[in-house]
Design a protein that fits this description.
350 residues, binds NADP nicotinamide-adenine-dinucleotide phosphate, 8-stranded mixed β-sheet, globular, single chain, Rossmann fold, alpha/beta, 13 helices, 45% helix, two-stranded antiparallel ribbon
């Protein structure tokens, strides 16, 4: 090794390349380590959601599952008297209940078991809803209203990304249908339940930094011409912020707030629809994994926006890493937000 270094320093071209590469590698490792240490702020544990009824879309995996778990830890258990028959004895017994609700399309029961294994007294209700189907959303809302008379926290978390051109059952481009339209209809149909929240309700919209890389032409939003999946995804995330912006105006004077956020770049299976995903995951993941947030870390900003006492009454803002952040110019366009709202009403038949 010493001889090699002597050779490197005696040979000027080789030496320059050698030291150049060493500098880049060491620099990357150092910067990476610093970034890793300071990359995530956590939502303080003492900020609670006791007594709240919480609805999370896409709660079965990724960021949604960890958001559900983090919130389950912040809800005081209440006790309920149950009859002896149910408990298998002859007497009455008391059982702990935590009103956390996770919603998912599939694999929801696994997530519920996972949450209950960490918070044994958690009550996690799994209800099915396919956000790509407006019928399914309507059906879900009916079922939800029959079960619960109020909703305190709605977290619009579910999403798809980088899907090859696909149409929803209602004929809309899939990113737009799931990430925006499904959540648009769900939120609008649940507004009465949210307004019934005694302490004030919060709507949390999980958007993405990707909204900054695109603009929206409403006339072309459902067009097949020149379809590029990452643009379609980014547009749907821009639509999330415009939706939150317009809804903030419509909810002015009510006890409901709405804010959007970027969760960070998180190690989940969000890109599972990408054709080369498996190869990518196998070859590149071990190298980039180090720079990604874990799903638990990715859930922190959603939890922060849902429970932070500092955000009581705060509406229409965008957050990243448990802090307010800036959005793109287009995401601040009130005319666009209004036009998108009008179009969404027509598309969902609201
Ligand atoms: N991961 C990141 O780096 C990142 C970065 C920025 C923003 N985000 C946003 O964070 C949110 C959560 O993503 P994630 O990373 O946790 O991804 P994920 O692990 O793939 O989770 C996505 C969730 O959405 C659900 N979902 C997909 N299609 C649905 C449909 N038609 N109806 C109902 N639910 C549906 C999935 O359910 P199934 O499993 O049953 O399909 C899953 O529970 C998304 O909105 C995403 O845009 C993520």
């Amino acid at each position: 090794m010493v001889k090699f270094m002597e050779f490197a320093s005696s040979n000027s071209i080789f030496g320059d390349v050698y030291f150049g590469i060493s500098f880049v590698v060491l620099g990357t490792v150092l910067m990476g380590s610093l970034w890793y240490m300071y990359r995530t702020k956590s939502c303080p544990k003492q900020w609670r959601a006791d007594g709240k009824t919480i609805l999370i879309t896409g709660g079965n995996t990724g960021i949604g599952k960890w958001t559900a778990l983090e919130l389950a830890k912040r809800v005081i258990a209440r006790t309920e008297t149950v009859s002896g028959e149910e408990e298998g004895g002859g007497k009455t017994a008391r059982r702990l209940l935590i009103p956390v609700i996770a919603i998912s399309v599939t694999r929801g029961e696994e997530a519920a078991e996972f949450i209950c294994s960490k918070v044994p007294c958690a009550l996690v209700t799994v209800m099915k809803m396919d956000l790509s189907s407006l019928n399914s959303v309507r059906h879900f809302v009916k079922e939800f209203k029959a079960k619960y008379d109020k909703l305190d926290i709605l977290i619009n978390n579910a999403g798809v990304a980088l899907v090859p051109l696909t149409r929803s059952e209602d004929g809309y481009e899939l990113h737009f249908a799931v990430n925006h339209l499904g959540h648009f209809l769900l939120t609008c149909l649940l507004l009465d339940q949210l307004k019934a929240s005694t302490e004030g309700a919060r709507i949390v919209v999980v958007s993405a930094l990707a909204h900054k890389f695109v603009s929206i032409n409403l006339k072309e939003i459902n067009s097949e011409e020149g379809y590029v999946s990452w643009k379609a995804y980014s547009r749907s995330k821009l639509a999330n912020i415009l939706f939150a912006r317009e809804l903030t105006k419509l909810l002015k004077g009510s006890n409901v707030t709405v804010n959007s956020l970027h969760p960070g770049i998180v190690e989940t299976d969000l890109l599972r629809h990408l054709v080369v995903y498996k190869v990518f995951r196998y070859c590149a993941w071990p190298f980039i994994k180090f720079f990604l947030k874990t799903p638990r870390e990715g859930a922190q900003t959603s939890v922060y926006v849902a429970v932070s006492p500092d955000l009581a009454g705060v509406s229409g803002k965008y957050f990243s890493d448990c802090d307010e952040a800036s959005v793109s110019k287009e995401a601040e366009d009130d005319h666009l937000a209004q036009a998108l709202w009008k179009m969404s009403v027509e598309m969902t038949g609201l």
